[in-house]
């Protein structure tokens, strides 16, 4: 059954499509009958009724049968009409550049200069305005759709107990990075951050790979986290090293908890081990694992060790520490007994046999096939030094040492500071110190603290903070002489001893890790 509203719509179609006078007469008569129905149900319209309004043309010529050859001719005619998807089609009429070459050159340009999506869109819009109106310049969607299909054939599923884990081909991504930065990677200056200048010639054909990972919560309403594993190349300069186009995505894990690192990293470790022999496209270049860069929680989990707030929680020495006032603290006067790879492997074997942690080691780590554990795990400079020690000391000075008048004076001095144009963050008030970024604490430690705290903080606290500022500034400056490194090491030792007296319960793992900075810098 059909409602009157539908017939009303059909009436408009019939009135607009009828051409002959006889048909118009029949249609008008029928419409008068329909208009008298007013939302009454009527029988459904059949095909015979429609033929009365729209009679089909009668022809005596039969419809030809389409055989296979005719079907191929039709497909060829359609493919010739859609020339846009042909690889040999020119960008516009009279051009010497094909569409595929234009896409390839634009992708290489974006990777070489690390262009973001907004910049690529602006470039494509500029081409659309400059080229003739009948151009075939691709849109950003078409360009990005083809680019996103790169990883479809390079992803492998990793069997894990919970969640989902995938690994990606590492060698192909490294080949692209070498192609973009070939001249930089073959310069001896690219190795100054890794080895001493006297031995750079022996490592010109070696790429040093750093493994980076961290957990990211995806949804606040669900306990799901994403753990990507990235590889960065130490041979590149600092800015190029951290550029997105020069990072290698080795694997991804998605699950409700931390991944089983031995299972998740096993295929990644195997592929990196094969790259030690050389690359297929560049046989003279080999890859060598260098450092493990992650925060304290992830590092302990990957190395299969006790967390930083437990006994023997330091990954670099055998200091047990003590629990006091709900904190795990270390004595700054204790001598440091450093861990080594041989001793660590023995502890891992004993822990696997006894199923108990031995000197903080809970078992074997799959990274022991690649890295020298635990020397590979570097100190997290951002979380442990800037957002750890520096933030704790500044908060203690403001909240417990200064009075309200001194805080207001220090705040006014801080806000009056005029920074250079390359400081992308201006000084913020101490009232917002809990929202400061790591870069803001770095600039405060290096440049602001002596000016702001000069007249409001007691001298002993100011001198103690100055020792930390000098040592961290020396360690963060590349090419520092061995004499300055030794001086900075002495300053950190004095700083830790004084801080244990000036600040109660300050000798946490973050403060303890400062004593290992000089060893890692050397």
Structure, briefly:
The chain is of the alpha+beta class. 45% of the residues lie in helices and 10% in strands.
Low-pLDDT stretches are 1-27, 37-42, 50-87
Whole-number average pLDDT?
A: 79
Cα shape:
globular
Report the sheet-strand fraction: 5-15%
Protein described:
By secondary structure, the chain is α+β, with helices and mostly antiparallel strands. 45% of the residues lie in helices and 10% in strands. The chain starts with a helix and ends with a helix. The protein contains 21 helices and nine strands. Strand 8 (322-324) and strand 9 form a beta hairpin. It has helices spanning 4-17, 21-35, 47-53, 68-81, 99-112, 117-130, 140-148, 170-180, 182-185, 238-241, 261-264, 266-275, 296-302, 341-354, 381-401, 404-415, 438-452, 459-475, 482-502, 509-513, 517-521, and strands at 155-158, 164-168, 206-213, 216-219, 224-233, 248-255, 286-293, 322-324, 327-329. Strands 1, 2, 3, 4, 5, 6 and 7 form a seven-stranded mixed β-sheet that branches. A two-stranded antiparallel sheet has the order 8-9.
């Amino acid at each position: 059954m059909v409602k009157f509203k539908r017939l009303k719509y059909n009436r408009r179609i019939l009135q607009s499509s009828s051409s002959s006078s006889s048909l118009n007469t029949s249609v008008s008569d029928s419409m008068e009958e329909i208009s008298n129905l007013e939302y009454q149900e009527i029988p459904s319209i059949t095909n015979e009724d429609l033929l009365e309004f729209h009679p089909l043309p009668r022809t005596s010529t039969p419809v030809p049968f389409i055989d296979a050859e005719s079907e191929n001719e039709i497909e060829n005619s359609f493919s010739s009409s859609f020339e846009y998807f042909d690889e040999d089609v020119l960008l516009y009429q009279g051009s010497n550049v094909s569409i595929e070459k234009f896409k390839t050159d634009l992708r290489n340009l974006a990777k070489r200069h690390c262009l973001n999506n907004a910049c690529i869109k602006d470039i494509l819009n500029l081409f659309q305005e400059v080229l003739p109106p009948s151009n075939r310049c691709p849109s950003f969607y078409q360009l990005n759709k083809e680019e996103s299909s790169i990883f479809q054939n390079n992803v492998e599923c990793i069997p894990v107990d919970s969640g989902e884990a995938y690994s990606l081909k590492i060698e192909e991504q490294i080949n692209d990075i070498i192609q973009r930065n070939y001249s930089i990677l073959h310069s001896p200056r690219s190795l100054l951050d890794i080895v001493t200048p006297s031995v750079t010639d022996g490592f010109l054909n070696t790429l040093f790979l750093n493994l980076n990972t961290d957990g990211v919560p995806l949804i606040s309403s669900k306990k799901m986290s994403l753990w990507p594993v990235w590889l960065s190349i130490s041979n590149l300069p600092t800015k190029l090293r951290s550029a997105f186009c020069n990072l290698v995505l080795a694997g991804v894990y998605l699950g409700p908890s931390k991944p089983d690192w031995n299972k998740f990293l096993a295929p990644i470790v195997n592929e990196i081990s094969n790259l030690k022999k050389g690359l297929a496209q560049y046989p003279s270049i080999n890859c060598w694992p260098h450092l493990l860069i992650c925060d304290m929680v992830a590092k302990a989990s990957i190395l299969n060790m006790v967390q930083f707030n437990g006994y023997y929680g330091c990954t670099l020495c055998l200091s047990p520490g003590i629990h006091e006032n709900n904190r795990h603290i270390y004595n700054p006067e204790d001598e440091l007994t450093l861990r080594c790879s041989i001793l660590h492997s023995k502890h891992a074997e004993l822990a696997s046999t006894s199923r108990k942690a031995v000197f903080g080691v809970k078992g074997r780590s799959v990274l022991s096939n690649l890295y020298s554990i635990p020397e590979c795990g570097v100190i997290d400079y951002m979380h442990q030094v800037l957002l750890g020690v520096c933030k704790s000391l500044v908060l203690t000075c403001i909240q417990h040492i200064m009075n309200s008048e001194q805080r207001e004076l220090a705040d006014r001095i801080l806000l009056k500071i005029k920074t250079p144009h390359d400081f992308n963050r201006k000084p913020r008030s101490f009232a917002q110190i809990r929202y400061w970024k790591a870069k803001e604490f770095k600039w405060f430690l290096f440049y602001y603290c002596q000016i702001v705290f000069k007249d409001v903080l007691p001298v002993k606290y100011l001198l103690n903070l100055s020792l930390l500022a000098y040592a961290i500034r020396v360690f963060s400056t590349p090419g520092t002489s061995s004499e300055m490194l030794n001086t900075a090491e002495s300053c950190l030792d004095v700083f830790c001893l004084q801080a244990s007296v000036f600040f109660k319960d300050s000798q946490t793992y973050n403060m303890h890790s400062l004593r290992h900075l000089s060893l890692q810098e050397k």
